[in-house]
Structure formats: C-alpha cells, structure tokens
Design a protein that fits this description.
mainly alpha, 80% helix, flat
C-alpha cells in the first residue's frame, strides 16, 4: 500500500470529525444567540448598572484569547467549583459565551437601525414595552442581522479548531492523529482545510439565501 492510499484510508476518520465540528458550531451559535439577544437589549434599553455588567462580560470574552478561555474554564474554574464537564460541553459553553459577546454587537446594531419611532408607535396603540420589542422591533432586527450572523458562523467555525487543545475529536484533532499515523502532514492538513472551506461556504450560502428571502427592502443588513 502506497503512502497516498494509506492516507486515503483515513479520510472517513477525518470526515467524521466534521460532525463534531458542526456540533461545536451549532451549540456555540445557539448559546451565543440566547446570550447575545438579551445582552443587546440590555445595552440599548437597560439601565446604567446593567449596561456596565454587560460591558464587563463583553470585554472579557472579546479581549481574552479563546485558548486562554478554554483552559481557564476546563482546567481552572470548573474543577475549583467541583463541576465536571467533558471537553465537548466545555468547548460549546466557552464558544457560546464568546459568540454571545460578538452576537450582542450584531443585534445591538440591528436594533438601533430600526426606526425608533416604531417602538413609540407600537406602545401608543396599547402594546407594552416588552410586547413592542418582541413583536415589532426584534423581528426586524433579526432580519437585518442575518449577514452579520453569517459572518459570525464563519468565525466560530474557524474558532472551533482551537478546541483540539482540549481533545475534542473535531476535524483538526483527527487530522493530527492521521499525520502521526501516516507520517504525512501535507495531505491531511490540506484535506482538513478543504473541509473547513466547504463547511464555511455551505453555511454562509444558506444564511445568505435566507437573507435574500427575508431582507427588508430599503434597509442594509449589518
């Protein structure tokens, strides 16, 4: 068996890592969404103390390197409080917290781009402030924010590779094992790069199609 055919026999092993990568990205984006929307609303409509608390959260997760955050949570914070999370769940949690910080800025910009008079108009016809936000402001903000969300998808997809540092069996971790087993580096890492390109274009392509269908005429997405 040639070295090339030996490598080809490992391709399914690397491709299987894409499922773990998708799990990291999906979990991170989903958690980031659940965090990012309330954080954005707090920045736009919250009081001073709440905005300060959100700002501290944003500064930590936007300014501290992802690798440091992963090690801090997995090796430092969780053991110190007696919490045991496996590498996959820890990675999803950290990716979600980090993504939430960035998504909050996407949603904040989208919320602020909606005409302010719409909130007052909704409240003038009997809606409460929360109802106006839920049924008038946020639906428009979500549509405006799709391009920014597509970009965040691409970013978190690339960030997911750093989770190999905790041993998550995603694409890069499996590729590293293949390089050790085959003694080759060029083909395995080239193949891993192609997988990331395909996943990036697939995800952003779907989100761009959604944006074209639901975008608001006359408004530019953030």
């Amino acid at each position: 068996m040639t070295s090339y055919s030996f490598f080809f026999s490992y391709i399914p092993f690397i491709v299987e890592g894409a499922l773990w990568t998708i799990c990291l990205v999906g979990g991170g984006l989903g958690l980031g969404f659940l965090i990012g929307v309330p954080a954005a609303l707090s920045q736009v409509y919250g009081g001073r103390k709440l905005r300060c608390m959100v700002e501290l959260y944003l500064r930590f997760f936007r300014e501290v390197p992802l690798l440091v955050q992963l090690f801090l949570f997995y090796w430092g914070l969780f053991p110190s409080i007696g919490l045991k999370l496996d590498p996959l769940r820890t990675s999803i949690l950290v990716l979600g917290l980090r993504s939430g910080a960035y998504q909050s800025q996407i949603f904040r910009s989208a919320i602020e781009s909606v005409e302010k008079g719409q909130l007052l108009a909704a409240m003038s016809i009997g809606m409460s402030r929360s109802q106006a936000l839920l049924y008038v402001i946020l639906p428009q903000a979500f549509r405006i924010s799709i391009p920014g969300w597509a970009n965040e998808y691409a970013v978190i997809l690339k960030d997911s590779a750093i989770c190999f540092s905790l041993g998550v069996m995603e694409i890069l971790t499996r590729t590293r094992y293949v390089t050790i087993a085959t003694g080759m580096a060029l083909l395995p890492y080239l193949f891993a790069g192609i997988l990331f390109i395909l996943l990036t274009n697939f995800g952003t392509g779907i989100l761009n199609m959604i944006y074209k269908k639901f975008r608001i005429p006359g408004l530019i997405g953030v």
